[in-house]
C-alpha cells in the first residue's frame, strides 16, 4: 500500500509541475508580441550553450523567458536603446543540430555585454524593425538630425 501512495504522490507532483508551467506560459504570453527566440547563455564550447525560449516585446524592451522554467520574470531583458546588431550569420557545426534550419543568429552588442540570439529568418525583419523604430511619441534620431523644410 505504501508503494501505491508514493506512486500517487509522485504523479500528483508531476501533474502540478506541468500545470504551473502551462499557467506561467499563459500569463507571459497573454498580451501578444511573442516570438520564438533562443539565447546563447554559455560560450564555453563552440556551437553549444543555446537555451530555447520566447521573447516578448514590451515598450522599449525585449524580454526573454526560458522555455522550461517556473519563473514568471524574464531571464534576460534587452533594452532597445543600447542594442545594436553587430553581425548576422547562419548556424554552424553543432548549432545546426539544436536549431531549426531556417533560423538566423544575430550577434548584438548592448550596454551590458555582447549577446547572441537566434530566431527564424522571417522573424528577423520584425525584430530589426522594432530595433530601428523610435518609441511612440519620440522623434527618431535619424529624423531629428535632418533639417526638414517648413510645411
Automatic annotation (TrEMBL):
The keyword Transmembrane applies. InterPro entries: DUF2550. Keywords: Membrane, Transmembrane, Transmembrane helix. The chain crosses the membrane at residues 6-27. It holds the Pfam family DUF2550. The keyword Transmembrane applies. This is DUF2550 domain-containing protein. It comes from Micromonospora jinlongensis.
Amino acid at each position: 500500500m505504501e508503494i501505491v501512495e508514493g506512486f500517487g504522490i509522485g504523479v500528483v507532483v508531476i501533474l502540478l509541475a506541468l500545470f504551473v508551467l502551462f499557467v506561467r506560459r499563459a500569463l507571459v504570453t497573454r498580451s501578444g508580441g511573442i516570438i520564438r527566440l533562443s539565447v546563447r547563455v554559455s560560450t564555453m564550447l563552440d556551437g553549444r550553450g543555446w537555451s530555447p525560449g520566447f521573447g516578448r516585446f514590451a515598450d522599449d524592451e525585449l524580454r526573454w523567458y526560458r522555455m522550461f522554467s517556473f519563473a514568471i520574470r524574464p531571464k534576460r531583458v534587452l533594452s532597445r536603446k543600447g542594442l545594436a546588431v553587430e553581425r548576422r550569420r547562419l548556424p554552424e557545426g553543432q548549432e545546426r543540430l539544436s536549431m531549426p534550419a531556417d533560423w538566423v543568429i544575430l550577434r548584438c552588442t548592448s550596454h551590458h555585454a555582447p549577446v547572441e540570439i537566434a530566431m527564424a529568418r522571417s522573424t528577423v525583419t520584425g525584430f530589426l524593425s522594432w530595433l530601428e523604430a523610435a518609441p511612440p511619441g519620440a522623434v527618431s534620431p535619424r529624423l531629428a538630425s535632418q533639417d526638414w523644410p517648413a510645411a
